[in-house]
Design a protein that fits this description.
The protein is built from three helices and eight strands; from the N terminus they run αβββαββαβββ. By secondary structure, the chain is of the alpha+beta class. The chain has a single domain, classed as Roll (Pnp Oxidase, Chain A), CATH 2.30.110.10. It has a six-stranded antiparallel barrel. A hairpin with a 2-residue loop joins β7 and β8. The longest helix has 17 residues. The two termini are 21 Å apart.
Length: 190
């Protein structure tokens, strides 16, 4: 069953911001797990990331990452990227052009680590090896926590400030597409 269609650009843009807020709070939302594309100056790199927070006034999404990751290095050198999201429920695709940053210290990082370290997800940032390091075999099962390694280690917060949103709706009555930028909004050919 398809959702009712929104008819104005203003209503669609408001719904996009609302759905981004829903995505960070509801694990089953299609946009919570999305693709982040970055580049290293020569090649594009893409991977799935989890949306953790959305700040509508600044139009900024937060994603957690390992500070040693390839994406963190790429962002330091080339801070532009693209998030691609799909919601089967809405039948909406978003291509979100973003200005990226990686925070490795400060209140934004320490306050989020204070919450995250109480969950099993903390192990993602406590590995002695950087993500993508070669191994001689499959990665071992998660080891019990080492009390000496319960510090923040390599946890970082990736900020993604929305520059523009390319919205696409796939609908039985006809597909629609629109572009939302700080300077305005307009319909596009699907």
């Amino acid at each position: 069953m398809t959702t009712p269609r929104l008819e104005t650009l203003e209503a669609i843009e408001a719904a996009v911001w609302h759905e981004l807020d829903r995505a960070v709070h509801h694990k089953a939302h299609g946009w919570r797990l999305c693709v982040l594309a970055t580049n290293d100056g020569d090649a594009v790199d893409a991977r799935h990331v989890v949306l953790r927070e959305w700040d509508e006034p600044t139009r900024t999404l937060l994603i957690f990452t390992d500070s040693r990751s390839r994406k963190a290095q790429q962002i330091a050198a080339h801070p532009s990227g693209m998030l691609v999201m799909w919601s089967p429920e809405l039948t909406w695709q978003l291509r979100v052009r973003v200005r990226l940053g990686v925070e490795i210290s400060g209140l934004a990082v320490s306050s989020r680590w204070a919450r995250l370290k109480l969950t099993p997800a903390r192990f993602d940032y406590l590995s002695p090896l950087p993500p993508g390091s070669p191994l001689e075999g499959p990665a071992p099962d998660q080891a019990p926590p080492d009390p000496s390694r319960e510090s923040r280690e390599h946890f970082a917060v990736l900020t993604a400030e929305v520059v523009s949103v390319d919205w696409l709706e796939l609908h039985p009555l006809g597909h629609r597409r629109a572009l939302f930028e700080p300077t305005g909004r307009c319909w596009l050919a699907p």
